[in-house]
Amino acid sequence: MVNSSARSIQYASKSNSERCEEKIINMTEASTDFNDNQEGINPLDLITALFHCADPFLQQEMALKMSMCQFAVPLLLPNCDTNECTLMLWALRDITKQFRFHGLEENSITRTDLPLISFVRLGKNQNLSKSEFLNKLLSNKQQNYDTFVHRKLENGNIKKQISNGLVEISWSLPSGRKNTDIFKEPVAVANLRGDISDFEVQFDFLSKISSAVFLFCDDLDSNQTFLESHQLGSKLVLICTTNDQKSRGDLKQKLEQMKLKTDSTILKDGKMNDAEFVAKLKKAVAEIAADSTKISIEKMSMTAEDLRIHIDENNPICQKAKERVERITRDIKNIPEYKMKELPLQGKPWKEISKLEKEMCRLKKARKQNIEHYMSELKYQIQNLRMEQGNHTMNEAINQFISGLCCSSNEQLYFLKWMKITLDSLIRKLLSRLQEQYKDECQNPTEDKEHLRDLDNQIASSSLGVQHFVRELSQLYECAHFQENWKHTALKKLPEICAQLMLNGFPLELIDGDASNIPLTWIGDVLAALNKLTSPHNKIRVVTVLGVQSSGKSTLLNTMFGVQFAVSSAKCTRGAFMLLIGVSEEFRSELRCDYILVIDTEGLKSPELENSYEHDNELATLVVGLSDITIVNISMENIVEMKDTLQIVVHAFLRMKEVGKKPCCHFVHQNTAEVAVHEKKARERKMFLQKLDEMTQAAAKMEKRGNKKKFTDILEYDIDKNNWYIPGLWLGVPPMAPVNTGYSEEVNNFKDGILDILRKTKVPAQNFVEFEEWIRSLWKAVQFENFIFSFRNTLVAEAYSKLCAEFNAWEWTFKKHMIDWYTKSETKIFNMGALSVQSVDAPNIDHILVNFKHEFAHELDKEEKIIFDKIQQYFESEEEHVHLVENHKEDFLNSARGLRRETETDLRNKLENAVLIQKGIKKVELIKQNQRNTMKEKVLKLISVFRNSRNSLSESQLNKEFKKLWDDIVKQYSFTALPRQDVVKEIYRLLHNNLEMKGRAVREMLLNVTSLD
What we know:
Blueprint: H1 14-28, H2 43-53, H3 56-68, E1 73-79, E2 84-87, E3 96-100, E4 104-108, E5 116-121, H4 130-137, E6 167-172, E7 187-195, H5 200-209, E8 212-216, H6 224-229, E9 235-241, H7 245-258, E10 264-268, H8 274-290, H9 297-306, E11 310-311, H10 316-329, H11 335-342, H12 348-362, H13 371-390, H14 396-406, H15 409-443, H16 449-461, H17 466-483, H18 490-503, E12 508-511, H19 520-534, E13 539-547, H20 553-561, E14 576-582, H21 585-591, E15 595-601, H22 613-626, E16 629-634, H23 639-655, E17 664-670, H24 677-680, H25 682-702, E18 723-726, H26 741-760, E19 766-767, H27 768-784, H28 794-838, H29 845-876, H30 889-947, H31 955-970, H32 983-995, H33 1000-1008
Parallel strand pairs: 2-11, 5-7, 5-8, 8-9, 9-10, 13-15, 13-16, 16-17, 17-18
Antiparallel strand pairs: 1-2, 1-6, 3-4, 6-7, 12-14, 13-19, 14-15
Helix pairs in contact: 4-8, 10-14, 10-15, 12-13, 13-17, 15-16, 17-19, 18-19, 19-27, 20-26, 22-23, 22-27, 23-25, 25-28, 27-33, 28-29, 28-30, 29-30, 30-31
């Protein structure tokens, strides 16, 4: 949760906060000025104490959240015990800023070169509040931001105990809008707390790295020695206050006597109001920023080392992890090429396996092939692809990655964090270059479309994160399991390692968004390891978020549960990731679970998958089916898309018997800021539900499930309680807008509502093994479904189904007419054949065949035109929802053409066969006649021979001579048997074609049929 009012703290009584207060007091014991009677604590002391108490990873999270609130963050953190300070380089590594200066720029703030303007104070300054004026300097006219804590803020006047010497840093970043930008250039601003005479190391550090130092000093006399003894390495701007004209003159004279080198002096007298003073400050800062050297926080570390300032990431474990990451990433120049070389298993082989596995369930390309043979061929191809994966040797990058996962717990955390930081930085740099090329190419009047397409593909494939390395491990594991070849013993430990990572809060990829598949063996073994590690406390509830791309789903989950799903604008979530949140012991009995498993999904309707509904619908159906609670993240501009997706989910649930439970559905409406929005939107909610009910009824009608009449029959939904209205995330225009406190508060209320539902639910929680079985069952059901997922929504599916029914009727009429014509033609051919046998003067049957073929072509043209006309009339009719299937019109026209070609080939062959049969009959009759004559002649000859013979033959000798004569005659002719017809195969093919739209269960039954007897 991010709350911009977090610094407004209330002092708790001792009875409620003894442990917390004890830590703060221990840090402030060194201060003899601590007043026991003074209730409260300065916010700066609290921030300093919290950063000292936090581990390095919590420090990063705190700094990130403070930056999102537009709070200044610690740059140098003082230690009151040792009087030393630490450069918070590691703590600031997670902060990424986006701004527009000479084009759009996005980078980690620690690696961004910016002019640094430092503000310091010398002596006691009772007249001006440095931090208050800094806030005015960094605020635009529309809104004032309290970036730095000052004496006029709540508890800001309480004396600081441990935060003197703290150096804070903040940024002023342009958005490209002249009316709201404070400076044209991006600027970093540092603020040293306390008197620089007490913190010379911090002052020396700032003077060496700053483009300019603005020094607030009222008493030059008392501080003359200090000023003369410190030669600044940067510009000095002196800021003093005077009460009258005489004092102004004395001040100028004093500066000349001191020979103090200042680039400018800003004097604030009694006549100058705050607005004029801030305007002078802004002008001075703008002039310096426009013409000064720039420095990043990373480069500041060299100056810090020279001054013997500690650097938070200079510890052996952190540096060792960093070196390991550098060995993995140093060769990355082109991300697609790197992935092909170093992460080959998740590329083409895995994507091909995914397609083949889906084809084994859907058999879309089987056509007239023998199903058993076709299935065997698919299995053989999968086996070959697994063998191809197995032939790859484990490269150095993956070896180093596995080593990073297998090291100590602390080093493992550093390693994964460094991987994320380094890869994010590389992606931003490479994507920025590609997007700039794409922009230039689009603006080119003679744009090369082929080059544009190539750039588009490069941008789409230029995603690389920790998840890609884990995905490669999953494929290594799946391949080893398939081949039963564990030559790399480390692979066997990977499920347990990843299970432990999930327990530590790292997300694991459930659905590979690039291949649209689940590595079931890998996921199953990780969940089994989780079950083993957590047993008997292994009960889980599942919460999922759905929404269109870039609608703030990941940010919503991060704010709700304090998790860290990726929200970088350089990349969007692909597929689905699951993350575990432990339930504390005192709440386990209430929620009746030990963990909440949160699933973050890829944004629906992404530009890369334009007009491809199948991927979105499969993803949505699976994750909703896995969930106890589904959060549907919508806004007014994408409500139609989400309604379409929900209709398909409902329709898919009607077709899949595996979805036995009834997921609870909550709608989160983002960017709504009205006070009475819930009451005002009541009518819209009712209309939205009515529309979903209509779709459900249409789907139930199509599936012959009349008992399902409402959306709430499929998904649990309360029109009043299951809608949440949340204001926008930012209060103003980024990059200088802070997080809207109302956003965090409403998200927190939503979280309370979700937990309350989990308390009241009567459905028992499942363990990890049961969840894994549920994934397998549901994914199998999704893979077998090949009809409904192809459509945008139920209305489109219904309209398509109705058009299919009409087309089937037209097709039957077409076939019936052509079969009737063929039957008549065949009868004529038979009659002509019989006549030709009886009479030599009968017409030539080949001439008759030519005439029939001409007549046949004419009939085909006529009947094809009738179907074309009916298709055209159907689309021009006022048939309900016909416009929804307009884009399928060409498909049906092509089907009509295909029907004509198929019928033409089939009947032409039958006509020719009929003619051949008649020719064969005629030939047989001629053979028979010739044989009769030959037999008669030879028999008479044989009789004549034996009649003239002196020796008479016995009956047996006569039979023997006759048989020999008969065999000699028969040998002169060859007899070929007719080809054997596979009737069972043909029946199976026809069944498959006729039932392909009847749902997953029917197709699965057909696949399991081994005999039609």
